[in-house]
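haha ok so turns out i had the wrong file open the whole time. this is the CORRECT one, sorry everyone. sequence first:
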Amino acid sequence: MPVFDLFIDEKVTVWRRQRVEVEAGTIEEDAQKLGDDLGDAACFDSEFLSETEEYISPSENGGCATTVIVEQGAKAVLWANATIHERSSESLN
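then structure:
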C-alpha cells in the first residue's frame, strides 16, 4: 500500500509579546501613549506565547476553512473543514 506525505495546516490565534521602550513621565502615561499609537514604540524583541494558542472554527474565520490537508509539494487542498478554503500559494510550499 502506498504511503503519502501530507501536511495538516491549521489556522490558530495566539498572543504575541513585544518588548518596547516608550518615553513618558509615568508608567501610566507610558501605557496610554503606547496604546494610543502602537507604531510609536521601538520594538526590541518579540515572542509568540505558545501556551495561548487556540484553534478557531470556520464560523470564527468568516466561513473560511481553518484546517486543510495538502500533499507535500502540491498546491491543491485535498480536504478542508469548510467549503471556502482560500489560501496563498506560498503557504502551501
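The chain has one domain: 6-92.
again sry for the mixup
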